[in-house]
UniProtKB/TrEMBL annotation, chain B:
InterPro entries: 4Fe4S_Fe-S-bd (IPR017896), 4Fe4S_Fe_S_CS (IPR017900), NADH-UbQ_OxRdtase_51kDa_CS (IPR001949), Nuo51_FMN-bd (IPR011538), Nuo51_FMN-bd_sf (IPR037225), Nuop51_4Fe4S-bd (IPR019575), Nuop51_4Fe4S-bd_sf (IPR037207), Soluble_ligand-bd (IPR019554). Keywords: 4Fe-4S, Iron, Iron-sulfur, Metal-binding. This is NADH-quinone oxidoreductase subunit NuoF. Transmembrane segments: none annotated. Pfam families: Complex1_51K, Fer4_10, NADH_4Fe-4S, SLBB. The lineage of its organism: Bacteria, Bacillati, Bacillota, Clostridia, Lachnospirales. Residues 564-593, 594-622 form the 4Fe-4S ferredoxin-type domain. The keyword 4Fe-4S applies.
């Protein structure tokens, strides 16, 4: 607690960890390229340097606020330093801004513009580094790296994956996997969080946009889209609509306009997952085997578990993820010549996630020898495609998703936020469905931003203990404790990205704290507006179980390595 | 054998004194410099010569011996190595070769006579005893007292000269608090560069809530040309270990780490031996001398990064992480090694501790200046007559060091500048020769003691080239973490490189100053912040030289090859055409038997013409 003077104005502070936070609280957008509240303080870019009343300069990110402090954030001297630092960064940076995927969203670009860097006096003498596009999810271009270390700390501090770090030193320093391996040769789980924090185009999403445009134009191809829950709350603000607003109706419209033949809702797939996973949980509880049951809807988590905790691989739910269940069902549905009209069917899923690009390539993501989903487009790619099309998204009317997979329950929609899967399963297992029942679940501890949440619930007189983790670092800590026998759970929901899919590696960036909570709120609001709250009460789901799925539940809905082979 | 209490320690010391008693001691310098000069061969030869002599004991520990032949640590007079000191006459033989051994044995060891040609000569005078040589006479050797005078490979030699008696005093007569108080009162300041008060540091560590604490010694002496710490580690390792132990006792730490650069293999080996021998007699380990104090010491090898001399990078390196400085706070005293409170001092600082404990704070305050008491070791190098390792009281003037101890500038040349404090320090000139060498006085004139490197430069030194050299060092050693240091020093170096290459631009000076100001004000760690110092201090003192390089494309000293201008003396040139025939660039024209001339535009500055001219008619323009 105390008061400090920032640029001549008194500012109160309480428990802010550093001066930078206090400065921002005072509505001064002090520039930085390496500070993220969720990462450890690194202090590499020095852009947030401030000056005190004695003329001493120091970085505001690493200095705790003290009562009575007097600091200046914008003296001519500081502005000169910032400009020079940016000029130096630009001088060692690939400056093909006009053709860079990050153009317009690049923080280096925008800061350089803000600070008025109009000339770079130094030549770029850096050795050209090869681009690593070995991963199905991300592309690394070291020539655009400014060595801020955000990705390194994300991969280490938050995700505990640790596949990239600094190598070499001085101007030769590089961010790279150990021994200069390619990303695909490492334990990378494709979560894409490195790309989320990367301020430049050094780590970007591996895109599929061009091939999708070609397919959309091809008259002999039927292109099917499914839209994941978290996508609908992350697009609006890109087109001037309020952040976090659910724009599902506009998305359906825009996809139709772009040429997608059918647009479905992945929440429908999520409903299938809830039903299957609840069943599996009950079975395991009965047999007492392979507990806790770990969710398997997050492909980055599945990879992480397989790589780092193979002893728990058996505990992973055998259920396919909503994307994959949906993919298999769609594929089965369009086998019928009456449905496919003799056209080739291409299944595209629109996801907040980079790991989904890897998931579709896994052997168990195929049925009868054919890949269930052909392409994954991330939200970010979709936004680019909309911009390219010229369609004024913000002005579009809303449209309903197509049948017969156009309705998802509220439970399916909240899959996109941490705790959503657990809440959906709880709804499924509860008998009633009135508001009081739903509220009981809502306030049981499943909601909120915390990286680890614990809930207990009663099922037929038995207490079921569940844990909800988001962020692989939190998962890692929890797994260690489970392994050591310190804690016991029956059900564990894991999402690789902190806060869940709304903050997935494929979502538009940058997303500040307000955007983050707006996206979470957006999904919960959509649930409030849905009449069907429980997955098992989705009428379309019932129809499917009674018809197309009959006898094929296991083959189409579970991670079945046998099913991947040809019939 | 483990020493269990104070009485046993006393007995052991007496025992050592008995065993070490000798009528004549032959100390052959085993420091890195003399070893490189072949002192090991001298040692072997001496052993061989004395093998069958009943009066000579070469085996360590034999009780009655008349003559001992042993390898000592560095004497400091490295320029004159290999050195051999012979006691009790205190003769110091210089530049000894194995061929001299026979004569030394016959004349000096057997007959006690000196060999004049092996003694140090200066200005016609011969110095028989080591202590009379001006290089030594003007020094105050306290920390380096035993360096060169004891056998660094055996603890017994150290015990004879009182090793671990300060530890004994601390353990049995003082509380940890009173140890800290004494160090605090002595005003001992860190010898690693910044001059932070050691007592204050210890106090801060002792006051932390966390009870697991570490004591770390910074032996990563990375400054080019500095070797003070190496000499202490090689020549008197027990003094430093004792200092660390006293620090550990004061802050109640049980574990210590010595971080030594891997380029110091001999120091590492001597420290390993010292630790091992101290463990064997129970000086290190559990319940030291029967008390409740336990202390274990580990050695960590640095992998050669200059930046690992910075505290947080050093502890990161010990932890097995990439050696990069981190932001502070938390400071090392709060969260250092393994995030525990840590006392981190450098070798020389620890080596000062035992004598303060032994003689008291008052005594220590009597040496040097009140604000910077004690002595400081410097590595005196460059164009000075006597180079080597020296120790002087704080507050001595540069003039005394260069002229009295260093013997003035080599070859009668004129003094130009001195670089003090290594690549993080500054250049001082003639005007500042009478300023005092202590932490505060030097800070006032924009320089720093740093770790103690002193590079003396004569009139033939190009100051732009000096700045370029130091900048190339800091640039190469930048860890790459913060932008100002990584990118800023790179650009400063580029500018300096083009100036010395003759491609300087009129805007270069302003750009250098702009970059320097930004780096000094914004870099993350001390090394980054001080990286522009050599450039700024030379820019301030030698602005004209920079201007000449940039505008006139001239280097007065002739050091910058690309700026050399060869000229043919028309009076001497006979027109033989040899220069023109040997010029690879075809830059020399003329007619036979009349003077030739050089086309400066075509000249590639190779100097072939000057070498070939039979009449010495070609020279470099000054």
């Amino acid at each position: 607690m105390g008061v400090m003077t920032i640029d001549g104005r008194k500012v109160e502070f309480t428990d802010e960890p550093n001066i930078l936070t206090v400065i921002r609280k005072a509505d001064i957008d002090i520039p930085t390229l390496c500070y993220h509240s969720e990462l450890s303080v690194y202090g590499a870019c020095r852009l947030c340097t401030v000056e005190n009343d004695k003329g001493k300069t120091f970085a505001s990110c690493s200095e705790p606020p003290r009562d009575g402090m007097v600091i200046y954030t914008n003296t001519p001297r500081l502005m000169k330093y910032r400009k020079l630092i940016l000029e130096l960064l630009l001088a060692a940076h690939c400056r093909d801004c006009t053709t860079c995927i990050k153009s317009g969203e690049c923080q280096l670009q925008s800061l350089a513009h803000r600070m008025g860097v109009m000339d770079v006096r130094f030549e770029n003498t850096k050795e050209l580094q090869p681009i690593d596009d070995s991963s199905p999810a991300i592309v690394r271009d070291p020539n655009k790296c400014i060595l801020c270390g955000d990705c390194v700390r994300m991969c280490d501090n938050v995700q505990a994956v640790n596949v990239i770090d600094f190598a070499y030193r001085g101007t030769k320093a590089l961010v790279t996997p150990a021994f200069d391996k390619k990303i695909a040769e490492t334990d990378c789980v494709n979560c894409g969080q490195c790309r989320v924090v990367c301020p430049t185009g050094a780590i970007s999403i591996k895109t599929n946009m061009d091939v999708i445009w070609d397919l959309l134009a091809d008259k002999d191809t039927k292109v099917i889209a499914q839209i994941a829950p978290a996508v609908r709350v992350a697009v609006g603000d890109q087109f001037g609509l309020p952040r976090g607003e659910n724009v599902m109706g506009k998305l359906v419209n825009v996809l139709h306009r772009m040429g997608f033949d059918e647009v479905f809702d992945t929440s429908y797939g999520a409903d299938l997952t809830v039903i299957e996973e609840s069943e599996e949980l009950l079975n395991r509880l009965e047999s007492g085997e392979k507990l806790p049951l770990f969710t398997s809807c997050c492909p980055a988590w599945v990879r992480y578990c397989e790589n780092r905790y193979p002893e728990f691989a058996e505990n992973l739910s055998t259920c396919r993820s909503p994307q994959q269940m949906f993919g298999a069902v769609v594929r089965e549905y369009y086998k019928d010549p009456e449905k496919n009209l003799g056209k080739r069917v291409v299944s595209v899923s629109i996801m907040p996630c980079t790991a989904k690009k890897d998931e579709i390539l896994r052997p168990e993501s195929s049925t009868n020898g054919k890949q269930d989903i052909d392409y994954v487009l991330t939200t970010t790619e979709l936004v680019s495609m909309i911009r390219k099309s010229g369609i004024r998204f913000e002005n579009l009317e809303i449209e309903a998703s197509d049948m017969p997979f156009g309705i998802g329950s509220g439970a399916g929609v909240i899959f996109g936020v941490t705790g959503g899967v657990t809440e959906a399963v709880l709804r499924r297992l509860r008998k009633g469905h009135n508001r009081v029942d739903m509220d009981n679940i809502k306030f049981s501890g499943v909601r909120g931003e915390k990286g680890l949440k614990e809930v207990e619930f009663d099922y037929n007189g038995r207490t079921i203990r569940a844990a909800i983790v988001s962020g692989l670092g939190n998962a890692d800590a929890l797994l260690k404790r489970i392994k050591a026998g310190e804690v016991h759970y029956d059900f564990v929901e894991v999402m690789a990205c902190y806060r869940g899919c709304v903050m997935g590696g494929g979502q538009p960036v940058p997303a500040g704290p307000r955007t983050k909570s707006a996206r979470m709120k957006g999904l919960y609001d959509s649930d409030v507006n849905t009449q069907i709250k429980k997955s098992n009460e989705n009428p379309l789901v019932q129809t499917l179980y009674d018809g197309l799925l009959k006898g094929k539940e296991h083959k189409l809905l579970h991670r079945n390595f046998e099913a991947a082979k040809n019939e | 054998m483990k020493i269990e209490n104070r009485t046993e320690l006393k007995e052991y010391r007496t025992e050592c004194q008995k065993r070490q008693r000798a009528k004549c001691r032959v100390l052959i310098c085993g420091g890195t410099g003399c070893l490189a000069g072949g002192s090991d061969k001298i040692y072997q030869k001496m052993l061989e010569l004395t093998k069958n002599d009943g009066n000579v004991s070469v085996e360590f520990g034999a009780e009655i011996a008349h003559t001992k032949v042993m390898k000592s640590g560095c004497h400091g007079f490295c320029e004159m190595g290999p050195l051999v000191r012979i006691e009790p006459h205190n003769y110091l033989y210089i530049k000894v070769s194995p061929d001299d051994c026979e004569e030394i044995y016959q004349k000096t060891i057997c007959e006690g006579k000196s060999i004049e040609r092996l003694l140090y000569h200066m200005d016609g005078q011969v110095y028989a005893s080591q202590e009379e040589i001006p290089f030594y006479a003007k020094q105050t050797r306290l920390v380096l007292k035993n360096c060169g005078h004891i056998d660094a490979d055996h603890i017994e030699g150290a015990m004879v000269v009182g090793a671990y008696s300060a530890l004994e005093k601390a353990l049995f007569e003082m509380t940890p608090e009173s140890v800290i108080d004494m160090i605090y009162e002595s005003n001992l300041r860190g010898r690693g560069g910044a001059g932070f008060r050691t007592g204050r540091k210890w106090k801060q560590v002792a006051s932390q809530k966390e009870k697991i604490r570490y004591v770390v010694c910074n032996g990563d002496e990375g400054d080019p040309g500095a070797f003070m710490d190496r000499s202490i580690m090689e020549g008197d390792p027990h003094r430093m270990i004792e200092g660390m132990m006293i620090a550990a006792y004061a802050v109640q730490a049980q574990e210590g780490y010595i971080y030594v650069r891997a380029e110091y293999p001999l120091a590492i080996q001597r420290l390993e031996t010292a630790i091992h021998q101290a463990e064997e007699i129970g000086i290190l380990g559990d319940h030291i001398l029967g008390t409740n104090f336990s202390f274990r010491l580990h050695i960590n090898r640095g992998a050669g990064a200059f930046v690992c001399g910075e505290g947080s990078a050093l502890t990161a390196s010990i932890e097995g992480k990439r050696g990069m400085p981190r932001v502070k706070p938390p400071r090392t005293v709060q969260q250092g090694l393994w995030a525990k409170p840590t006392v981190l001092n450098n070798v020389e600082t620890y080596a000062n501790v035992p004598m303060i404990i032994q003689n008291g704070a008052e005594w220590y305050l009597g040496i040097g200046t009140p604000e910077s008491p004690g002595t400081k070791a410097f590595a005196l190098t460059g164009n000075v007559r006597n180079t080597g390792l020296i120790e002087v009281p704080m507050g001595i003037t540069l003039r005394e060091v260069i002229y009295d101890i260093g013997g003035g500038i080599q070859n009668g040349k004129k003094f130009k500048a001195v670089q003090i404090g290594g690549p993080s320090g500054g250049c001082l000139t003639e005007k500042q020769l009478d300023s005092k060498m202590d932490f505060d006085s030097l800070a006032k004139i924009g320089a720093m003691i740093g770790s103690g490197g002193l590079v003396i430069m004569d009139e033939n030194t190009c100051m732009v080239e000096v700045a370029r050299f130091f900048m190339s060092f800091t640039q190469r050693e930048s860890c790459g973490k913060c932008v100002p240091c990584r990118e800023g020093t790179k650009r400063m170096l580029e500018i300096l490189e083009r100036i010395v290459a003759g491609n300087g631009k009129p805007t270069d000076i302003d750009e250098l100053r702009e970059l320097a100001d930004m780096i000094e004000s914004t870099a993350l760690c001390g090394l980054g912040k001080s990286a522009p110092k050599p450039v700024i201090s030379t820019l301030n003192a030698f602005a004209e030289e920079y201007r000449e390089h940039i505008e006139d494309k001239k280097c007065k000293t002739g050091v910058c090859t690309n700026l050399r201008q060869f000229q043919i003396d028309l009076d001497i040139c006979k027109g033989c055409s040899k220069c023109a025939r040997n010029c690879p660039a075809g830059a020399i024209e003329g007619e036979l038997k009349s003077p030739y001339h050089i086309n400066q535009e075509k000249c590639i500055k190779c100097g072939a013409c000057m070498e070939q001219c039979p009449f010495k008619a070609i020279s470099v323009a000054r």
